[in-house]
Amino acid sequence: MTTHDKPPAAKAAAQAPKAPKSEQTRTLILETALRLFQERGYDKTTMRAIAQEAGVSVGNAYYYFSSKEHLVQGFYDRIAQEHQAAVAGILDGREKDLTARIRGVLLAWLDIAEPYHEFAAQFFKNAADPDSPLSPFSPESEGPRQAAIDVHRRVLAGADVKVAAELSEALPQLLWLQQMGLVLFWVYDRSEGCANSRRLVERLAPVTARAISLSRFRVLRPLVKETHDLLQDFMPTAAGMAASGKPRRSPSTPPASPDSPPSRSDGS
């Protein structure tokens, strides 16, 4: 069969440009790490083992990911990207009911994260460390954090509930914090298929939608704003830690080239 005889889908696939080699290598290292985290556990998987399984040098592995923690950051980025793609039909379609939009976004996250549930608890103890780059509040997590907040911003923007202008920035961040609470519950959820996490979403979505709907009343807006300001000042983000007077540890600097990995104490 010649190129001209191929069906349109096959022809488009054949003509689609391949990802740059550097991106292919990065993806290979990340996928290898996620597989080993599932098979051996996060703590027992070293950067050296990941490099060996991926068929790259240790220096090359460190070039793309300066530590195991930054590999998990790559996992966070992937989850955020997949979540944005998964909710496009919910947020860009005809569904305007706020409860349905909140429910759809949270259930979509559970669907995407399900394959990684087994090892999620293994690195959660690292994410709970406020100085860890794995913390969802860390500077290193800024990208996926803002991507998640943007999803919730779209949840509100396309809903049939009018949000007061002064709450337009506060509510998406509060919805993200609610999602973080769901993630914590999911990490500890041992019900079959994480059914309890899904039941939580079903109960949570209408309550949240009702609270947002009530926030349109002027008498309740100051309460929402004060709650947001309180969380902003005391959340363990860079801004929150600065407000509380506690300095944050500076993020590590990635290695300059694939041939000069930094010295590590992570068992690599």
Give me the count of strands.
Answer: 0
The span between the termini is: 49 Å
Radius of gyration equals 21 Å
Total count of helical runs of at least 4 residues: 13
Helix content: 55-70%
What fraction of the residues are assigned to beta strands by DSSP? under 5%
Throw out a few tags for this protein.
63% helix, 268 residues, elongated, mainly alpha
Could you outline the blueprint of secondary structure elements for this entry?
Layout: H1 8-15, H2 21-40, H3 47-54, H4 58-64, H5 68-86, H6 88-92, H7 98-113, H8 117-127, H9 142-157, H10 170-188, H11 195-214, H12 221-234, H13 238-244
Helix pairs in contact: 2-3, 3-4, 5-7, 5-9, 7-9, 7-11, 9-10, 10-11, 10-12, 12-13
Structure in words:
It is a single chain. The protein has 268 residues and is an all-alpha fold. Helices cover 63% and strands 0% of the residues. The protein has helices spanning 8-15, 21-40, 47-54, 58-64, 68-86, 88-92, 98-113, 117-127, 142-157, 170-188, 195-214, 221-234, 238-244. Helix 5 crosses helix 7, helix 7 (98-113) packs antiparallel against helix 9 (142-157) and helix 10 packs antiparallel against helix 11 (195-214). The protein is elongated, with a radius of gyration of 21 Å. The termini are far apart. The model is unreliable at 6-16 and 238-263 (pLDDT under 50).
